[in-house]
Specification:
The chain is an alpha+beta fold. It starts with 15 loop residues before the first helix and ends in a 13-residue tail after the last strand.
Length: 355
């Protein structure tokens, strides 16, 4: 991984196998095994746990900084909030670091700041500290934003875990983790896939797909807390960002050491997004999303959770897309024509700089 003739490429930041290899073989070599966190770096979950506090840092370099349905400001707040929420925690304080490129219009910077403020209000969080740097004109694309955040345990999480233990008495985890899946659990996807990646691609390349495809970027923390409290039974959650549904399901499968079978006909996807993917030769399963969550839930609570989600704006197109199995390892898909095919972890997201 760190040979003399190797260099960082765009694939190293695109999710998928290349990025995961960089993290495992290079970054963990220096920082792995040094943490006393309950969920250490080696777990490679969406965030870490120290005591009863969840900690997350997320950087965003989307290009362009404004795209249909969102912007880098809304993306940076939503991304951090959603990663904290994926462990079952409630985000409540954020820190923000701006790296601004010389020449960025102040009106654009203020537009980003206003978007961040509105997204924070939507999520019920506040930016409490931060830092600003400026770099020379170049290829930065306007700005890069890092948002770090902390979250806390809630009564909703405790209620959720009690429900899990009712159906799985041996369950010991104190958080909602990637490694918690067990045979028989159902997999819920909260909405359509591919919207964000195709929206950003259309802005990058000036493409017009004859429709109004917009990013799905939004904070999901309030939805998640209500779902944990009012339904419960959730064991794993993860937002399918870089690498899309395919990468996220493979990560859950690998960490839980179990198979996942999904149903192609159950995967929600907009017709215009599907058409755009077909035209461009892209697999919608590998395209990143920013306002969706994959939920692993005990089978006894799956239909109740689905009904709850469909009554919300964020989850009105939710579907139970599959289940956890010990019949095989990895991820497979039952196709609409009746066969099964392996869903491999992608090399990387086919669209660069979407987050």
């Amino acid at each position: 991984m760190s040979g003399k003739n190797e260099h960082i490429t765009m694939l190293h930041g695109a999710g998928g196998t290349v990025m995961h290899d960089l993290v495992k073989k290079c970054i963990l070599k220096y920082f792995g095994g040094t943490s006393h966190a309950e969920i250490p770096l080696e777990a490679l979950d969406d965030a870490a746990v120290v005591g009863d506090t969840v900690l997350k840092s997320d950087s965003h370099a989307v290009k362009p900084i404004f795209f249909p349905g969102g912007d880098i400001g809304r993306l940076s707040v939503s991304g951090t909030v959603n990663d904290i929420s994926a462990l079952g925690a409630e985000p409540y304080a954020l820190a923000c670091g701006f790296i601004l490129e010389e020449g960025l219009a102040l009106t654009d910077f203020e537009r980003i700041l206003a978007s961040m403020k509105n997204t924070c209000s939507e999520a019920g969080v506040n930016i409490v500290t931060g830092d600003t740097k400026v770099v020379e004109r170049g290829s930065l694309g306007g700005c890069v934003i890092n948002v770090s955040g902390i979250g806390r345990r809630t009564h909703a999480l405790e209620k959720n875990l009690q429900v899990v233990k009712r159906f799985r008495p041996s369950f010991k985890a104190r958080w909602v983790l990637d490694s918690n899946l067990a045979e028989g659990d159902k997999i819920i996807l909260t909405g359509t896939i591919g919207d964000h990646g195709i929206a950003v691609l259309s802005a990058q390349e000036g493409l017009n797909f004859g429709s109004n495809i917009k990013s799905d970027v939004k904070p999901l923390n309030r939805l998640i807390q209500h779902l944990l409290s009012e339904v419960g039974g959730i064991v794993s959650m993860k937002d399918p960002t870089r690498g899309g549904l395919a990468d996220t399901l493979n990560e859950l499968s690998e960490k839980s050491n179990i198979g996942i079978l999904i149903q192609e006909k159950k995967i929600p996807i907009r017709e215009d997004v599907q058409a755009a993917c077909e035209m461009l030769g892209l697999d919608p399963l590998e395209i990143g999303n920013e306002g969706k969550m994959i939920i692993g839930i005990v089978k006894e609570k799956a239909q109740e959770a689905l009904a709850f989600l469909r009554e919300t704006e964020e989850g009105r197109e939710a579907q139970v897309i599959g289940e956890v199995t010990r019949e095989f390892a990895g991820v497979a898909m039952q196709t609409v024509v009746g066969g099964k095919r392996i869903v491999p972890r992608p090399v990387g997201d086919p669209i660069p700089r979407i987050c």
